[in-house]
Amino acid sequence: xxxxxxxxxxxxxxxxxxxxxxxxxxxxxxxxxxxxxxxxxxxxxxxxxxxxxxxxxxxxxxxxxxxxxxxxxxxxxxxxxxxxxxxxxxxxxxxxxxxxxxxxxxxxxxxxxxxxxxxxxxxxxxxxxxxxxxxxxxxxxxxxxxxxxxxxxxxxxxxxxxxxxxxxxxxxxxxxxxxxxxxxxxxxxxxxxxxxxxxxxxxxxxxxxxxxxxxxxxxxxxxxxxxxxxxxxxxxxxxxxxxxxxxxxxxxxxxxxxxxxxxxxxxxxxxxxxxxxxxxxxxxxxxxxxxxxxxxxxxxxxxxxxxxxxxxxxxxxxxxxxxxxxxxxxxxxxxxxxxxxxxxxxxxxxxxxxxxxxxxxx
Length: 362
Ligand SMILES: *Cc1c(COP(=O)(O)O)cnc(C)c1O
Prior knowledge:
The protein has eleven helices and twelve strands. The protein is globular, with a radius of gyration of 20 Å. The relative contact order is 0.17. Helix 3 runs parallel beside helix 4 (about 85-90), helix 3 crosses helix 7 (about 200-210) and helix 8 packs across helix 11. The chain is an alpha/beta fold. It starts with 13 loop residues before the first helix and ends with a helix. The site of pyridoxal-5'-phosphate (PLP) has 14 residues, from helix 3 and helix 4.
């Protein structure tokens, strides 16, 4: 429909075009100085942790698990309410994803459910900072410490989110950010793995590059998961825009909060001490709140020219790729009720007004 407000709107300006052109003119486009500079600069948003660039968030999670020594016989506790990549990577390294429920307020992994799922085989916990809201890293950190488990943060949706002043990415042994176009910043495709462990950082660099640090001296069996300098050049420009964009997302969310309050549609809750960066602005639409429930509500938004998205309509454990039957009631309820409204920084005040009016039915 002409004039539809899109649910996501990646932005590329003159600076991104110039950066790509600079790399093209250099004649060297594969991993090189732009990637190295991007890694140095990215460290600034993760409390100075070492950052290793790869070709996607999924690659980053995959390499992080291998670098942490997780493989066959190990269990990794994951939320079922996430993007499939969260669990796919666990299966791809030969480990077993153990799916647990989320808490109902922020849709992040439920620490009590994590603790109940721990077995002698548990190697790690993989919390997802879903929609840009930090998972409860305080309780998860205590649980991990008590049981001697590693934490790998899936921070793919949460660039610059924080909890009690600590940025996400600085809690786990490793953390991974996605740089896919619809994320809060992009390099085209790409990912960044961050860690405070120099040995893991070295393994990550080896694994992304055929197992080599020095050419033709392959130390381990590795992949080609390198980021290109073209992508890094775009990512560097977008990193410079991130703080302003995050502020705009938070301001847009505040506008939506105020406009939607009292309508019966449940606006996103923010935990005490949390900085939500609103990768998605996700509301809950129960059957009681809107006749016909979430899907009928989404249809009304479409009629009024407001794009929306459902992340995620099917919990990972029930996808054909895993095909499990589990009792995860909050995950099922979320999959039925959530809807994400436009919140991206390209929205005008008029767009925001249109979104609110469509939501409250004015
Ligand atoms: C986007 C995303 C990924 C994967 O990132 P890609 O860059 O698309 O490979 C993993 N986990 C979550 C939660 C994501 O949102």
